[in-house]
Specification:
It is a single chain. By secondary structure, the chain is mainly alpha-helical. The chain has one domain. The protein is built from 3 helices and no strands.
């Protein structure tokens, strides 16, 4: 997404929104995306063979699913919010 416009207050707002979107996306991907990937990897490794799958199902895997959903929400909600804010600023420029 490239922000190109003449120097003005609206353009500065759009560029600030773009920078904020980039920073929020990066931070959310690092702080929440990596633990989410680890949770999914742990779930996949526990379900890979039949012996550990049976033990994992009996032990209860709901905790991992809830933890994964919470991490996914923590990753996506700020990114979507800042993206919508950026798109609103770009729409105001048109």
């Amino acid at each position: 997404m490239n922000v190109s416009c003449f120097p003005s207050a609206e353009c500065d707002d759009a560029q600030e929104a773009k920078k904020l979107f980039d920073v929020v996306s990066l931070l959310c991907s690092i702080f929440f995306g990596i633990p989410l990937a680890l949770v999914l990897l742990r779930m996949m490794s526990n379900l890979s063979d039949s012996v550990s799958r049976i033990a994992y199902m009996q032990m209860g895997f709901e905790r991992d699913i809830v933890y994964g959903l919470i991490l996914a929400a923590c990753t996506l909600i700020p990114i979507v919010y800042t993206f919508m804010r950026y798109r609103l600023k770009m729409a105001l420029l048109d």
